User: What shape does this take?
Amino acid sequence: MKIRPVTAEERAEWPKTVVVPLEKPFVDERGSIQPLVDVPMESCVLISSKKGTVRANHYHQTDWHYCYVLDGEIEYWERPTGSDQAPVKTVIGPGTMFFTGPMVDHSMVFTKDTTFLTFGRNSRSQEVYEADVVRIPHLPPVG
Assistant: This one.
């Protein structure tokens, strides 16, 4: 199992905001092509989540992921790893791309049944994933 170290060049290319603006789609009489992610990556997964469930509550040491919501809605919570600041919530709906970099505590609360694609820097094999992820307590405020 090999996880590549993060480089300064790679870090400079990461989005600067949670929500990632998408390029304009190419449209012709056949339909459209929407560019989503055009960076070197090692995994793409399709995730479905039921309303009222929670995913993540972790951070990645080197991995990042772009997530594109196909349907549903996510309350995405994040803060810098090691920070005691209150997590920031962003509500993300269909057709929206968002980004999580390494060393960012994050959690996803599903307010509707939701399907989304996740494009990741590292392999999604269980061995690589578990070597890179660090679990944290429930991030969003409870109550």
